[in-house]
Each structure stands twice: as C-alpha cells, then as structure tokens.
Design goal:
It is built from 5 helices and 8 strands, in the order H-H-H-E-E-H-H-E-E-E-E-E-E. Helix 2 packs antiparallel against helix 3 and helix 3 crosses helix 4. It is 54% helix and 12% strand. Strand 5 and strand 6 form a beta hairpin. The strands form 2 sheets. It has a 6-stranded antiparallel sheet with strand order 3-8-4-5-6-7. A two-stranded parallel sheet has the order 1-2. The protein has a domain of 133 residues: endopeptidase domain like (from Nostoc punctiforme) (endopeptidase fold (from Nostoc punctiforme), Alpha-Beta Complex), CATH 3.90.1720. It has 282 residues and is an alpha+beta fold.
Length: 282
C-alpha cells in the first residue's frame, strides 16, 4: 500500500472538483435557461405600454400668439386712423365747400347792396330835385291862393286840372306837388304823409280845416256820386263814417293819395283802386 493512500485529499478532491464544476455548469445552464425563459415569457404574455412625452412648446407658442395679437391690433389701429383721416378730409372738404358758397353769397349780397346803394343815391338825388321843384311850386301856390280869395283864377299845373280854378285849383296843385313823398302812419308833412294828413294839408291851402282822420273826412261835406266828381272832391274807401282811406280827386279820372309805405304818395287812375264814395266840401 502506498504511503499516500491514507491521505484523504490526495485524489478525492480532484473528483469533487470535477463534479463540483460539472454541477456548477449544469446548474448554471439550468439557471440561465430559466432566466432566459423567464425573461422571454412575460414579454409575450403582457404588452408593454409606452408613454411618449412631447417637448414643451408653451413659451414659444405664447410669444407667437402675442406677436399675432399685437399685429392684429396694429392693423385695427391703422384702419381706425385711416377712417379718422378720411372722415376729417371729408369734413374739411364740406367745410371748404360751405365756406366757398358763403363767400359767393356774401359777394353777391355785397354786389346787390352796392347796386341798391347806387339806385338809392340816384333816387335821393332825384327826390331832392323834386323837393326843390315842389318848394318852388308851393311858393307859387301861396301866391295863387291869395289871388283866388280876391276873385282871380289860378290855372292848374297839368292838363287833367287845366279847367280847375279857385280853391279847388289850390287843393289839386298842392296834392300833385306831394307826389313822391313818403307814406308814414300819422304823417302830416312836409315831406311824409298819411292819407288823411295829406288831404287835411291840401284843404288848408284853401283855408278849410278838415277833421284829422279818414272816418270823419268821409262825412265832412256832401255825398256825391262817383259819376259826378269834380276836382278837389274827397274820395274814400270803406263806408261813410268808417272809411279806412281817403284821397283827393284831381280831375281827368285820376286821384292823388298817400297810399302806403311801399308806394308812398302817388297819382293814380280811379281804375287802379276804385273808391267806395266821395264827398264835396267846396
């Protein structure tokens, strides 16, 4: 017997090592297989759900939206500004048109005023000349009146009263001399009259005092027909005692009267304004 046979670890440890290695290898393979099977098994049995997170874009999006809003607001402001400018331009055009029309109107009014002033100046010059002429006639009438009182005759200044003499001639001549004078309510001369003021002044040249107003003059004297008139008769409009207008018949189918503020004192045909009646004072 070998002297090493009694040493337990001389050969047996090699067998154990080999078996241990084998066992380890088998065990390792089995465990590997199980591990692989375990890893593969659940993948087939249960699906994997994955959640994908998108990148955050809030900051950039907000900036873009803000920029778009600002641009929209700017466009709105531009449109509003343009609308205001258009409205202002339209208003300015209307104002200019109105100003032009007003300037044209004022120019026309000024032109008319100048023309009216020229006409008025000419009329005043003519009236002054006529007044000077009437003053001369009145001086002559005063002398004629004195002559008529002594029995002499005074010839009429126009063909319509050429056959009138005495007091009637004085009344007619005075009335005709006032033609062109103004009509003024309550006027009693010397250059403006109302209707009864004129007849009263005319009769005064013949030494006759008539009542002041038309109503009283229409009954002062004898009522005569309009077909039988004589120069110097008083014509009246309205009824006797309530007449609203009077004038003096001068012959030839005509009368002189202070008519109204538009016409003044005029000489007219009876057909111009037919009177209602007449009275004879002389």
């Amino acid at each position: 017997m070998s002297h090493t046979a009694h040493i337990p670890s001389h050969r047996k440890p090699r067998q154990r090592a080999s078996k241990s290695a084998l066992r380890a290898g088998v065990a390792g393979g089995v465990l590997s297989t199980i591990a692989v099977a375990g890893a593969a098994g659940p993948a087939q049995a249960e699906p994997v759900t994955q959640t994908i997170e998108m990148p955050t874009i809030t900051s950039g999006f907000s900036t873009a939206v803000a920029a778009s809003a600002q641009a929209t607001q700017q466009v709105a402001l531009d449109l509003e500004t343009q609308a205001d400018e258009d409205a202002a331009a339209e208003k300015a055009a209307k104002t200019a048109k109105k100003a032009h029309a007003e300037a044209v109107r004022k120019a026309e009014a000024k032109k008319k005023a100048e023309a009216a002033a020229k006409v008025r100046a000419e009329a005043e010059a003519k009236e002054r000349a006529e007044r000077a002429s009437r003053t001369s006639e009145r001086t002559t009438l005063s002398a004629s009146s004195g002559s008529s009182d002594s029995g002499s005759s005074a010839s009429a200044p126009s063909s319509s009263s050429s056959n009138v003499s005495g007091s009637a001639a004085s009344i007619v001549a005075f009335a005709k001399a006032q033609v062109g004078d103004a009509y003024v309510p309550g006027g009693t001369g010397p250059n403006s009259w109302d209707c009864s003021g004129l007849t009263q002044a005319a009769y005064r040249t013949a030494g006759i005092d008539l009542p002041r107003v038309s109503q009283s003059q229409s009954t002062f004297g004898t009522q005569v027909s309009l077909d039988n008139l004589q120069p110097g008769d008083i014509l009246y409009w309205g009824s006797a005692g309530s007449a609203y207008h009077v004038a003096i018949y001068i012959g030839g189918g005509e009368f002189v009267g202070a008519q109204n503020s538009n016409t003044g004192t005029v000489q007219r045909s009876l057909d111009y304004d037919r009177p209602t009646g007449a009275v004879r004072v002389l």
